[in-house]
Write a structure and sequence with these properties.
Radius of gyration: 14 Å
Structural class: mainly beta
């Protein structure tokens, strides 16, 4: 099991920046992918960015060149650096991870952090 706790959400003006953090605890050695998703009211949750243990990243097209996912060397914290924020980036942002243990894959989620962008 892995527990995830997000922080860093806030109200910012359009064009501003934020860095979200996600602290992972528990069996983090079993984590092979970490990611950030977001969900705005009335919308489905969407993948924003993911990062594999090998460092491969993937981004939602609308955030490429503005958002950067990273992870510390210990693997215990993952970050989402966001710049040039737009009103359409406003959402609850969720951190998640995938674990593989003995061939069994599981997914774990944090409870989310609110990002609000004023125009």
């Amino acid at each position: 099991q892995v527990q995830l706790v997000e922080s860093g959400g806030a109200l910012v003006q359009a064009g501003g920046s934020l860095r979200l953090s996600c602290i992972l605890s528990g069996n983090i050695s079993s984590v092979d992918i970490v990611g950030w998703h977001r969900q705005a009211p009335g919308n489905q949750r969407e993948l924003v960015a993911i990062m594999t243990n090998s460092g491969t990243t993937h981004y939602l097209d609308s955030v490429k060149d503005r958002f950067t996912i990273s992870r510390d060397n210990a693997g215990s914290t993952t970050y989402l650096q966001m710049i040039s924020l737009k009103p359409e980036d406003a959402a609850v942002y969720y951190c998640n991870c995938r674990t593989v243990v003995g061939g069994t894959t599981d997914y774990f989620w944090g409870k989310g952090t609110q990002v609000t962008v004023s125009s």
